[in-house]
C-alpha cells in the first residue's frame, strides 16, 4: 500500500500587524474585550494590493525550499480557500503560474475553515492511488477582504495568511499519513456565509447597502457545533489508528477560539499545552490556520521526527475532519 508523507512545508503571514486596540472604535477597551472572549491579541491583515494567491505563492515557494524540490517536481497543486482572488479562474492556477509548476495540474477546494485538511485529504488520496507522486496542498485566506468592520462579533476574530505542505509517496507505518476522517453536514450551511457573493444572490446595489457582501456567522451555534465535532474527530481518528488520545504528541486544531480549546482540554483530559496554537498572534486565519501552525512547529523543532500529530479543521458548510500523521 502506498502511504504519503510530508516532505516539506512553508507559510506566509502579511507584515501588517493589527492589534486588538485597532477595534477600540467598536467596543471600549477592545484588547481586554477580545482577548477575554477569544484568546486573540493581534492578527495580520494583507495590504490592499495583496491577494490570497500572493500569500499562497510565498508559502508554496517556502515549502519547495523546505522540501528541496523545484516547482517542476510538483504533479498537482490543491489550494484550499474561501477567499479566492476572483470567482474564476482558480487561485491554484495563479499559484501554479507564479511558481512555475509547469508539470502540475491545479484546482481549488472550498470547505471554508476546513479547506486545508480537505486539501490534505485530496493530496493523500491522489498519492495513494499511485497515479501521482508529489502533491502540494495549500491553505490560504484573506478574510480581511470580506469582513464587516461594523460587526464587533466577527471582524476582530480573523486574520490573513497562507500555509503549504508537500506530500510525496514513501511513507510507511512509522512515517506519513496514517488515518483520515472527513465529514460535512449541509443542513448547517446558513450558519457561516457571505449571502451576496454568487449566483444565489448576485451583488447588487441593494445587497451592498444591506451589507450582505460581507462575512456572516451565527457565533453561538457555531461554538456548539465546534465543541461537538472536535471530540468526534479526536476519538474517531484515534480509534481508527488503534491508539488513545494519550498516545498523541500534539493536536493542531483549527485556530478559532481558545475558549473552545479550554473546553475540549477539560472534557477530554488532553493537556492544553499539547494543543499547538498561534491564535493569540494570528487570529482565525481560516483555511491557513492548521497549515501555519504545522509549518511553524516543524521549523522551530517543536514537532520532531517520530511525533504523532492529529491535525483537524472545522468550518462552514458545515464541514469538519482531520488527519493522523506520523512525522
Work out the count of structural domains.
2
Structural class: alpha/beta
CATH topology of the largest domain: Peroxisomal Thiolase, Chain A, domain 1
Number of helices: 9
Distance between the termini: 18 Å
CATH superfamily of the largest domain: Thiolase/Chalcone synthase
**Mean pLDDT figure:** 97
Portion of residues within helices: 25-40%
Number of strands: 13
Q: Could you tell me the radius of gyration in angstroms?
A: 19 Å
Biggest β-sheet: count, sense, barrel? Answer: 5 strands, mixed
Proportion of β residues?
15-25%
| Low-pLDDT windows of residues | none
In the CATH hierarchy, the architecture of the largest domain is: 3-Layer(aba) Sandwich
Apparent shape? globular
Any idea of the CATH class of the largest domain? Alpha Beta
Order of strands in the sheet with most strands? 1-7-6-4-5
How are helices and strands ordered from N to C? Answer: EEHEHEHEHEEEEHEHEHHHEE
Question: How does this model look, in words?
Answer:
The protein is α/β, with parallel strands linked by helices and 327 residues long. It folds into two domains: 3-171, Thiolase/Chalcone synthase (Peroxisomal Thiolase, Chain A, domain 1); 177-326, 3-Layer(aba) Sandwich (Peroxisomal Thiolase, Chain A, domain 1), CATH 3.40.47.10. Helices cover 31% and strands 24% of the residues. The protein has nine helices and 13 strands. The strands form four sheets. The chain has a five-stranded mixed sheet, with helices on both faces. Helix 6 packs across helix 7 (258-268). The radius of gyration is 19 Å and the shape is globular. The two termini are 18 Å apart. The mean pLDDT is 97.
Amino acid at each position: 500500500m502506498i502511504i504519503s508523507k510530508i516532505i516539506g512545508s512553508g507559510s506566509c503571514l502579511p507584515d501588517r500587524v493589527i492589534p486588538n486596540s485597532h477595534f477600540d472604535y467598536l467596543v471600549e477597551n477592545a484588547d481586554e474585550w477580545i482577548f477575554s472572549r477569544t484568546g486573540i491579541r493581534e492578527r495580520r491583515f494583507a495590504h490592499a494590493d495583496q491577494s490570497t494567491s500572493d500569500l499562497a505563492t510565498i508559502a508554496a515557494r517556502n515549502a519547495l525550499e523546505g522540501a528541496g524540490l523545484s516547482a517542476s517536481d510538483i504533479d498537482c497543486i490543491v489550494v484550499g480557500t474561501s477567499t479566492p482572488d476572483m470567482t474564476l479562474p482558480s487561485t491554484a492556477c495563479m499559484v501554479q503560474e507564479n511558481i512555475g509548476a509547469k508539470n502540475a495540474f491545479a484546482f481549488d477546494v472550498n470547505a471554508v475553515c476546513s479547506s486545508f485538511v480537505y486539501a490534505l485529504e485530496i493530496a493523500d488520496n491522489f498519492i495513494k492511488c499511485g497515479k501521482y507522486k508529489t502533491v502540494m496542498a495549500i491553505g490560504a485566506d484573506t478574510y480581511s477582504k470580506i469582513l464587516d468592520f461594523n460587526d464587533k462579533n466577527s471582524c476582530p476574530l480573523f486574520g490573513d495568511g497562507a500555509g503549504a505542505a508537500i506530500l510525496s509517496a514513501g511513507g510507511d507505518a512509522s512515517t506519513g499519513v496514517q488515518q483520515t476522517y472527513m465529514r460535512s453536514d449541509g443542513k448547517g450551511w446558513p450558519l457561516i456565509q457571505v449571502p451576496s457573493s454568487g449566483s444565489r444572490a448576485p451583488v447588487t446595489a441593494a445587497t451592498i447597502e444591506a451589507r450582505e457582501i460581507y462575512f456572516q456567522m451565527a457565533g453561538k451555534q457555531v461554538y456548539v457545533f465546534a465543541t461537538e465535532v472536535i471530540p468526534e474527530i479526536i476519538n474517531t481518528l484515534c480509534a481508527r489508528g488503534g491508539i488513545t488520545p494519550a498516545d498523541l504528541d500534539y493536536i493542531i486544531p483549527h485556530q478559532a477560539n481558545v475558549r473552545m480549546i479550554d473546553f475540549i482540554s477539560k472534557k477530554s483530559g488532553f493537556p492544553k499545552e499539547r494543543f499547538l496554537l498561534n491564535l493569540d498572534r494570528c487570529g482565525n486565519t481560516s483555511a491557513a490556520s492548521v497549515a501555519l501552525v504545522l509549518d511553524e512547529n516543524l521549523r522551530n523543532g517543536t514537532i520532531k521526527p517520530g511525533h504523532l500529530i492529529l491535525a483537524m479543521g472545522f468550518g462552514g458548510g458545515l464541514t469538519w475532519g482531520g488527519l493522523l500523521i506520523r512525522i
